[in-house]
């Protein structure tokens, strides 16, 4: 036999989960930061788009406002210049008509010149001298160097000339001069008529705070780009000191945002040319005024978006961390809930859940098989060696099962010594059967543990999911039933075995349940009774002892022999209470017999291994003996050979205690088990009963004869008591006589009978 080496660390091991395994619920944690980032992105996109739109709208609004003002301002300038031109034209006409009689004062009379329309009107002679002027007490000045004088003198067709602002030599005020050439009747140069106006006159009174705001600007430009008049933010600027080439640039740009060359203020500016005169207007609105609302809104949007971003990111971070912690805790809990702590394998809960999901989802008819593995002798080893060793052994078993099953299988531990393997696939049954065979082969190798080796037996049940299977519990129950059947089959030979579930197993299981109920009822109503069979001395023929044999008087089925219910009662544990009833009844009966003379020497009672392992036989025996005043040496307990050979420490301990009490232990059915004669020496018994299968061979079967001979001589050597069972005929009696004084039992000497018919004393 090959023994597996014990591993140093029996700890956990990994087995890869197959696709069968329960799908964990999808985690949404990653979605929180991603979603939040997308949301933040969306917020910013919306905010920036909104800001852009509002900016565009604000600029359009400014443009339309300045454009409106510019149109009316241009019209206004057009009219103002026209008014001046009318005066220039009128003077030119009147003067040319009659230079000698023309008197400039008539202008005032006709109210063509007043303090608020014009500063002064002057007629300059052909040499630049002042001929007439509306300014009283004017000093004689020479104006021949004035640009308008030179322009008109050199160009007869110039028309209306508008000068740049100049410091009037007569008025001593800054003024704009509107001039036209004066001609003699022959067309030669006769001088210039000059109308001087205050430059502010062009712009004052037109400034509208509502339309232009406090930072607005009105300006009038000449076609050469020179500033003629300007009104900004309600103040007049000096136009001369700032010829402002940038204004000239406006001739090309005709509007837009630019920094004012005079006050450096950034303004939205609209340029509009006069319809009739070589002048243009500029209407400006300060960027600050124009965009104040927009900027306010923009800041608000930015603040809002920023605030939302901070809040969202903080919240997302918090939620993510919290959820991650929760998820980790939940995963840990789930792992704990789904895992068998000892082996690290999935537990029953995970198995049933996974099966349930798989069945609900896929309905894998014929493609899902369970291999239910149950260890036959684990409990005894566990009781004998202690739980720690038992645990290590289970870990070894789990490891070996995992190895045999391979990486693709799902292996779960579903109970103390129960494991389930799940197989999925097209040929699930065949795969399960082959797996079961492999497991059985693998169990042929003993498990090495702490220097010892233990042969484990496994009973394996296989069930395949089919249309008749209701759900996962049904499938599990079927595999369990099949395992149970395999255990029944394997038990006599003490072999590992597998069985595939068949429907009749279910019927049998139902019957089992019924039988258990019947047994329960039988115990309550004490439907059991005992018959006694004498054990006699071969030489004297006197009854030495009486073996109590149980029967069941079933209310419907009549008397049932022990072979038909004792094995079942052993399997189901009912033998423990039944055994107690038997011992009690037997002792009561025996104490009665003791009163008659000569009473039997001893009482033989059969006990089952189950009573030794799971019941408290020692206490029961002691109580019965005490109660009925029976000498312990008069009680023999018959135990089958296989029970003893299975040799759990619990059995041995109980037997030892019983023997210490004085009770004798007899090995029943000797020869049917696996013990050889030499093993008798090491067994802790007081006697043997040779099984009737050997007695049957007397006197013809040489092997049987040799066996009987050997056992008898060995028993004598070892000082063991000896009973030959099943003696039925004279021939056997005769052959046995050669051994002298031995005890015999059998139909020849007396069948098992009711206690009332027992005749104590010499047998027939
Ligand atoms: P066992 O302990 O070997 O009991 C002897 C069986 O052999 C009895 O069958 C008896 O009727 C039968 N027998 C006796 N002489 C002869 C003979 O000359 N020829 C043949 N062919 N058979 C003979 P029974 O009463 O049917 O009991 C069968 C088995 O049931 C017993 O075998 C024993 O293992 C078990 N059993 C009976 N009573 C009890 C009990 O109270 N407790 C337990 N645990 N087992 C019991
Ligand atoms: Ca017996
Ligand atoms: Ca027997």
Q: What is the structural class? A: alpha+beta
Bound molecules: ligand C2E, calcium ion
Share of β-strand residues: 15-25%
> Given the structure, what is the number of helices?
22
What overall geometry do the principal axes of the alpha carbons give?
rod-shaped
Look at the structure and give the CATH class of the largest domain: Alpha Beta
Q: Would you tell me which CATH topology of the largest domain applies? A: Beta-Lactamase
Average pLDDT reading: 86
Oligomer: single chain
Helix coverage percent: 40-55%
Tell me how many strands there are.
28
| Unreliable residue stretches | 1-19
**CATH superfamily assignment of the largest domain?**
PAS domain
| Through-space gap between termini | 53 Å
CATH architecture of the largest domain: 2-Layer Sandwich
Query: Structurally, how many domains make up the residues?
Result: 3
Could you explain how this protein is built, in words?
This is GGDEF-domain containing protein. Residues 366-499 form the GGDEF domain. InterPro entries: Biofilm_reg_signaling, EAL_dom, EAL_sf, GGDEF_dom, Nucleotide_cyclase, Rev_trsase/Diguanyl_cyclase. The protein has 22 helices and 28 strands. The chain is an alpha+beta fold. The protein folds into three domains: 3-11 and 346-501, 2-Layer Sandwich (Alpha-Beta Plaits), CATH 3.30.70; 29-336, 2-Layer Sandwich (Beta-Lactamase), CATH 3.30.450.20; 529-744, Alpha-Beta Barrel (TIM Barrel). An eight-stranded mixed β-barrel has the order 20-21-23-24-25-26-27-28. Strands 1, 2, 3, 4, 5 and 6 form a six-stranded antiparallel β-sheet that branches. Strands 9-8-7-12-11-10 form a six-stranded antiparallel β-sheet. A hairpin with a 2-residue loop joins strand 16 and strand 17. Helix 1 runs antiparallel to helix 7 and helix 15 (575-595) runs parallel beside helix 17. It is rod-shaped. The structure holds ligand C2E and calcium ion (CA) (2 copies). One calcium ion binds next to loops.
């Amino acid at each position: 036999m090959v023994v597996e080496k014990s591993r140093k660390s029996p700890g956990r091991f990994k087995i890869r989960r197959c696709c069968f395994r329960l799908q964990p619920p999808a985690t949404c944690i990653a979605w929180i930061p991603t979603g939040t980032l997308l949301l933040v992105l969306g917020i910013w996109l919306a905010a920036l788009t909104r800001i852009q739109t509002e900016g565009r709208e604000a600029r359009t609004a400014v443009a339309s406002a300045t454009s409106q003002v510019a149109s009316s301002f241009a019209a206004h300038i057009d009219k103002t210049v026209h008014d001046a031109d009318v005066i220039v034209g009128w003077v030119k006409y009147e003067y040319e008509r009659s230079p000698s009689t023309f008197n400039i004062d008539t202008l005032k009379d006709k109210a063509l010149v007043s303090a608020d329309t014009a500063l002064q009107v002057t007629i300059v002679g052909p040499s630049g001298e002042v001929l007439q002027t509306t300014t009283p007490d004017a000093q004689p000045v020479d104006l021949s160097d004035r640009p308008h004088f030179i322009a008109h003198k050199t160009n007869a067709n110039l028309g209306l000339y508008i000068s740049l602002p100049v410091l009037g030599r007569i008025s001593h005020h800054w003024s704009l001069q509107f001039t036209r050439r004066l001609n003699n009747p022959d067309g030669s140069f006769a001088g210039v008529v000059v109308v001087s106006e205050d430059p502010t006159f062009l712009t004052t009174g037109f400034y509208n705070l509502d339309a232009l705001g406090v930072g607005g600007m009105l300006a009038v430009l000449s076609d050469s780009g020179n500033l003629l008049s300007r009104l900004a933010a309600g103040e007049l600027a000096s136009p001369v000191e700032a010829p402002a080439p940038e204004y000239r640039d406006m001739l090309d740009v005709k509007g837009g945002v630019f920094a004012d060359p005079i006050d450096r203020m950034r303004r939205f500016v609209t340029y509009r040319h006069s319809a009739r005169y070589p002048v243009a207007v500029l209407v400006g609105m300060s960027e600050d005024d124009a965009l104040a609302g927009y900027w306010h809104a923009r800041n608000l949007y930015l603040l809002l978006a920023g605030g939302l971003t901070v809040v969202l990111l903080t919240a997302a971070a918090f939620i993510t961390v919290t959820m991650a912690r929760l998820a980790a805790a939940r995963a840990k809990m789930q792992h704990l809930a789904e895992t068998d702590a000892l082996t690290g394998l999935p537990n029953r809960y995970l198995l049933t859940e996974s099966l349930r999901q798989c069945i609900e989802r896929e309905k894998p008819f014929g493609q899902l098989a369970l291999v239910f593995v149950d260890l036959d002798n684990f409990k005894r080893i566990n009781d004998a060696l202690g739980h720690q060793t038992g645990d290590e052994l289970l870990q070894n078993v789990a490891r070996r099962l995992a190895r045999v099953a391979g990486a693709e299988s799902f292996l779960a531990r579903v109970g103390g010594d129960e494991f389930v393997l799940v197989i999925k696939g097209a040929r699930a049954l065949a795969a399960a059967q082959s797996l079961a065979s492999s497991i059985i082969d693998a169990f042929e190798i003993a498990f090495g543990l702490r220097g010892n080796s233990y042969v484990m037996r496994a009973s394996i049940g296989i069930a395949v999911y089919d249309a008749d299977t209701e759900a996962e519990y049904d499938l599990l129950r079927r595999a369990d039933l099949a395992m149970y059947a395999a255990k029944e089959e394997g038990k006599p030979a003490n072999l590992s075995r597998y069985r595939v579930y068949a429907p009749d197993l279910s019927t049998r299981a139902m019957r089992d349940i019924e039988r258990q109920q019947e047994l329960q009822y039988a115990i309550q109503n004490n439907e059991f009774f005992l018959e006694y069979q004498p054990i006699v001395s071969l030489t004297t023929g006197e009854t030495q002892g009486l073996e109590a044999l149980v029967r069941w008087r079933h209310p419907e089925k009549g008397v049932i022999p022990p072979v038909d219910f004792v094995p079942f009662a052993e399997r189901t544990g009912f033998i423990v209470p039944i055994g107690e009833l038997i011992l009690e009844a037997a002792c009561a009966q025996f104490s009665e017999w003791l009163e008659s003379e000569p009473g039997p020497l001893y009482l033989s009672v059969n006990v089952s291994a189950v009573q030794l392992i799971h019941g408290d036989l020692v206490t029961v025996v002691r109580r019965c003996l005490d109660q009925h005043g029976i000498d312990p040496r008069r009680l023999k307990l018959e135990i089958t050979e296989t029970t003893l050979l299975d040799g759990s420490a619990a059995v041995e301990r109980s037997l030892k205690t019983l023997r210490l009490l004085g009770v004798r232990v007899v090995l029943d059915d000797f020869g049917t088990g696996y013990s050889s004669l030499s093993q008798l020496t090491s067994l802790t018994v007081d006697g043997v009963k040779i099984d009737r299968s050997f007695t049957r061979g007397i006197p013809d079967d040489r092997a049987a004869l040799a066996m009987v001979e050997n056992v008898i001589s060995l028993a004598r050597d070892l000082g063991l008591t000896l009973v030959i069972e099943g003696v039925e005929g004279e021939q056997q009696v005769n052959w046995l006589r050669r051994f002298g004084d031995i005890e015999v039992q059998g139909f020849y000497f007396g069948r098992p009978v009711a206690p009332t018919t027992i005749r104590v004393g010499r047998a027939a």
